[in-house]
Amino acid sequence: MFRPKLPTMPQPTGHVTPPAVVIEPTTITPGTPAPPSAPAVPASAPVPSRPTVQLTPGTALALVGGGTAVVLVVGAVLVSMLLAVAVTAASVTVCAVVLRSLLASGAKRR
In terms of C-beta density within 10 A (0-12 exposed, 13-18 middle, 19 or more buried), how is residue 56 classed? Predict the structure, then answer.
């Protein structure tokens, strides 16, 4: 009941044929230059590249504003978490002092 059932590997049921495509190795003879695969580009022609991003003053200002907003939000979250930990620690401390004083006053009466 508690033992897992392991699947069994299925056995091949028929005659297995090898693949029909046979790849033969090619021979490389040293000393014969290979033909160039692409035409040579002259040195004066510009090399095509991906387009560059142009930052205008408006987009730069938007990026700075967005970064500032992210920093302020993350800072506010971290400060609020620190404040929550500090308030919890203070309340636990007050509870411990009250319990200690109650226990000490109860021990004096006996």
Answer: exposed
Q: Are 76 and 70 in contact (CB under 8 A)?
A: no
Tell me the two tokens of residue 54: 């142009």
Identity at 99, one-letter amino acid code: L
Report whether 91 contacts 83 (CB < 8 A): no
| Phi-psi category of residue 35: left, alpha or beta, with phi > 0 → left and psi -120 to 50 → alpha | beta
Q: pLDDT tens digit string along 66-97? A: 999 999 999 999 999 999 999 999 999 999 99
Q: Would you state the torsion angle of the CA atoms of residues 30, 35, 36, 38, taken in this order, to the nearest 10 degrees?
A: -140
Token pair 């044929």 is at which residue? 17
Q: Decide: residue 43, CB within 10 A, 0-12 exposed, 13-18 middle, 19+ buried.
A: exposed
pLDDT for 29: 73
